[in-house]
Every structure is written in C-alpha cells, then in structure tokens.
Specification:
Length: 318
Amino acid sequence: MTDYGIDLSHWNRVTDFGAVRGNGISFASVKLTEGVDYIDPASVSHVNGAKGAGLHTGGYHFARDVNIDAQVNHFAGQLRARGLLDPAALAPMLDMEHADLRDNGNAFVAAFINRLRAVTGIRKVLVYANSDWWTHILRPDEWADGDVFLWIARYNGKPGSPGWSHPRLALHQHTDNGVVPGIPGKVDRDATMPGYSLDQLTLGAAPAPAPNPAPNPAPAPNTYTVRSGDTLSAIAQRNGTTWQELARINGIADPNRIFPGQVLTLTGPQAGRFHTVRPGDTLSAIAQRNGTTSRELARINAIADPNRIFPGQVIRLP
C-alpha cells in the first residue's frame, strides 16, 4: 500500500490540518533548520498542527557547506524541542541541494549521519536530493546502511515511479505543484516507493490508528489554533502569559503577523524544559539561571565544546 505525505516550510500556509489528513495524507516532513543558526519561522506551527491532526511528523535540515557538527547540534536541538525524536515521528531528513556541496556531498552526508546518530541516539535517517544529484553526485552505496533511506525529488506526477532506482530508495517527491485541502496554494507531495511502508520510516512503533478527523480537530494539549481577528497579545492575555513569551517559544519574528489556522504552543509545563540561545548567552550563564552546571548541559546536549554555542540553538535543560 502506498502512503502519501507532504513536506512543508514557511512558504506553505496551512489553514486546516484536519482537512489535510482527510485527503489521505499520513505523514509530513517540516523544515526546522538551515545552516548553523536559522530556524524556519513556521516550523513550530507546522509541527504542532501536523502532530495534532495525527500525522507522522518529522523535521528536516537544509544543509550548507559550513561546520557539520554545529549544523547537527542546531538541528538536533530543534528535533528535541519539537518532540520529533519520539517513536511515532517520521525519521529526520537531510536536504542535500545547495550548490556549494556538489563537490564534497558524499563526505558531508556520511559525516552528518554519523554525528546525528551520536547526538540524538537514533539510527534512522532520510536523505533527500533531486534526480540530478542522485544520478551525478551522490553515491549512497558509500554511506547508506540499512537505517538510511533515500528520498528523490522528480516532478513527473507518477507517485512511486521516479525513473531512478536504488535498493534504499523509499520516498518519491512527485510534484511541487500539489493541491491539498487545507493548504491554500501549491505544496510538495510525496509517496512511499513500492516495497516500503510508513512504519519503516518512523523512528519506532507506530501509534494506534486515529479515527477519521472531524473537519476542525482540537489541537494537541497546550496549543491554541489562531482564529480570525485574534492578536498575539489577546491570546496571551486569555492564557495567562505575555505576547513576548508566545513569540519566543513559537519562533515568531513579527508578533503582528499571525494568521488563522496557525497553531501556537502556549506557555505550560514543558515550556521551561528547553532554552533557546540568545546573543551574548554562555553555557555557564544558562546553567546558573537554571540551577545546573555547564558540564551537565554539555553532557545532555552532546556539546563537544562548551565555549561554542550559538544564537538559535535549543538547549535541553535537566
């Protein structure tokens, strides 16, 4: 049986994740990070909405030709913060398409996978590239073991038939012009390849099947779905917090720009389990403010050099 999914970034606005799932979409890969310091501004809303609708949700990292360890640490921090290392999560994906990586792409992929496994403790990894990269640049036989799955982008409108094959090829992005209810505008659509199922591409045991969602399913606990006329300050006031706190934990750069259907994480029991590094932060200062030590923070976050943290990095707290 073929499983169908989508991948999302800030270029995609989703107004109704229930309608998305009702269209037969069962998984979503959400852009979380790029390089060593960028966090996609829609990632929190997309992850909350997709998980709330019962989709198997994963995160992806857009690779740049910069420090690999710093990129992995940045990506892993966001995976943890968004709950995307849980058993039901779609495996994390490495997006290989930046031109600067064409000459050293294979060494980069191998090093990235090894580092991600060491930092997160997970084994399964998805590697995404277009058909040109798979045909002329990437050599998966050098680095794709039994827990690495390939994902090809070839927009031929034939799900599961990309015209290129490999034993580890598991997913086909068959259009970047897809139409899905609940998503105004076009969206990338994906499908599993013959011989592969969604269960193989999640990090662990799949959750119990959810019933067909109502047209407007309730969001996951500790979230709020923005309605027409809402403002961030009004939402904050109704939920006993501040608009500054909502903007911080949801990665909202402009508090005056929220939209109906956006899913916000509210201040709650889990909000204090992570700290997003700000300019001027040091690991020792973060540790002191949270009643722990820099050595403990370095240990639980797999930070090799406690003197090297960067704005936007998400630090797990004990």
